[in-house]
C-alpha cells in the first residue's frame, strides 16, 4: 500500500480520493489517501505552509506505522518533504519534484503551468535552465477556476503561448490540472507531451512499489 | 519505436539486444538497438569518449529520421547526451541521469556501485548529498568480471558494505550490473531497494512512449 497525503482538509470523499484514484487506475497499485486536519483552504502562503508541516509529518509517520511502503505528498510544492523524510525510513515522494525529475530525464525545454505566482522553488531548483517559460492562466488563481469552460480556455491559451516561447513539453506545477484531466486535452489538441504532477508522483511510486514486495 | 544506442561496437546480436530486451520485457514497448562502429572496447577514458561522441550523435540523428519517438543512450555516463539533444527534437534519455533522477525522486540515501574509479559526473551532479558512498567491487574493472562467481560475490560484498555505511538503497552506475540481473540478487538477498540503470532508462522511455501515440 502507498500512502497519499492531500495538503488541505477534504470534507468530500470523492475529492479526497481523486489523486489516488488516478494512480490506482494507471498503475493498479493500492493507495491510502488521507488529508490534513483543520485546513480547508490548504496551503496558500508561508504561514499556512508553516502550520501544515507538522500535520503532514504526523500523517506520514502514522502511514508508515500502518504499513505503507512509500508516501506521496501530493502537491507541486512538496511541502514538508524534508521534515517527513527525516522522520520515516520509507521513500517520501513529492508531486513537484517527481514531475521535475521526469522532465529532466527527458531533457526537452519545458513550459511550466500553474496557478501560483511562479514555479514552486523545489521544481525550479531541479528544472533550472530547462524552463523556457512559466504561465498562470489568466484569471485562474485557484483550482476551481479551472473547472469552468472559460478557465479551461484560458489554460489552453497559456499552453499555446508557452509553446510559442519555445517549450517542447508542458510541465504541470499544480495538481488541479491533473484532477481535471488537462494533460489529455493538451496532448490531443496541441500534440504536445505533458508531464503531469499526479501522473509523475504515481509513476515514481508504482515503480518503487513493484520491488517493494521483494524487499 | 524507441531507439537505443550501445556505446561500444557489438559484434554479437545477443549482446547488442540485451538492454533492449530487458526494456521490451518489462514494458512491452518496441526497441531498436544499434551500436557505434569501430569501438569494440567502448568508452574507457577521455579520448575514447571524445571519439565516440560524433558516432553517438550520428546514430541518434539517423534513429530520429527512421521514426524513433525517443532515444536512449544506454550508459551510466550519458556520453554525448548534450550534443545529441542539440541535434534532434525528440527526447534523449541517458541511463545514468535516469537512474539518478529516480533515486532523487525517492529521496533515500544511496550507495552507488559501478566499475569505474568514481561516480560518473552526470550522476554525481544529480545525486549530490544523497550519496552515502561509492564502491567498485574488488577486482572488478570491466563488465565481464561480473560474470564470474567470484565477481558476483565481490559485488554482493560491496553492496553490503554500502548498506553498512548508511545506504538505504543501491544505485547502479554501470549497465553491466543490469545485464547480469544483479538487482534481483540484491533485492532477494539483502532486502534492499535497487535503482538499476537499464530499468530506469526503460522506465523513463516507456512513460514517455505511452503518450507519444497521442501527440
Automatic annotation (TrEMBL), chains A, B:
InterPro entries: Asp/Glu/hydantoin_racemase, Asp/Glu_race. This is Hydantoin racemase. It comes from the Bacteria. Pfam families: Asp_Glu_race (PF01177). GO terms for molecular function: amino-acid racemase activity. The lineage of its organism: Bacteria, Bacillati, Bacillota, Bacilli, Bacillales. Gene3D superfamilies: 3.40.50.1860.
Amino acid at each position: 500500500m502507498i500512502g497519499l497525503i492531500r495538503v488541505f482538509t477534504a470534507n468530500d470523499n470523492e475529492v479526497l480520493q481523486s489523486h489516488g484514484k488516478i494512480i490506482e487506475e494507471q498503475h493498479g497499485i493500492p493507495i491510502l489517501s488521507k488529508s490534513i486536519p483543520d485546513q480547508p483552504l490548504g496551503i496558500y502562503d508561508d504561514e499556512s505552509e508553516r502550520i501544515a508541516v507538522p500535520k503532514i509529518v504526523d500523517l506520514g509517520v502514522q502511514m508508515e506505522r500502518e504499513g505503507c511502503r512509500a508516501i506521496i505528498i501530493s502537491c507541486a510544492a512538496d511541502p514538508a518533504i524534508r521534515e517527513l523524510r527525516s522522520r520515516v525510513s520509507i521513500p517520501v515522494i513529492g508531486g513537484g519534484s517527481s514531475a521535475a525529475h521526469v522532465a529532466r530525464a527527458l531533457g526537452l525545454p519545458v513550459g511550466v503551468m500553474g496557478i501560483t505566482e511562479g514555479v514552486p522553488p523545489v521544481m525550479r531548483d531541479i528544472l533550472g535552465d530547462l524552463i523556457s517559460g512559466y504561465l498562470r492562466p489568466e484569471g485562474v488563481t485557484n483550482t476551481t477556476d479551472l473547472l469552468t469552460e472559460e478557465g479551461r480556455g484560458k489554460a489552453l491559451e497559456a499552453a499555446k503561448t508557452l509553446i510559442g516561447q519555445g517549450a517542447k513539453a508542458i510541465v504541470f506545477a499544480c495538481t488541479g490540472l491533473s484532477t481535471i484531466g488537462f494533460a489529455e486535452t493538451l496532448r490531443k489538441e496541441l500534440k504536445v507531451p505533458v508531464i503531469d504532477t499526479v501522473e509523475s508522483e504515481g509513476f515514481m511510486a508504482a515503480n518503487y512499489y513493484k520491488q517493494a514486495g521483494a524487499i
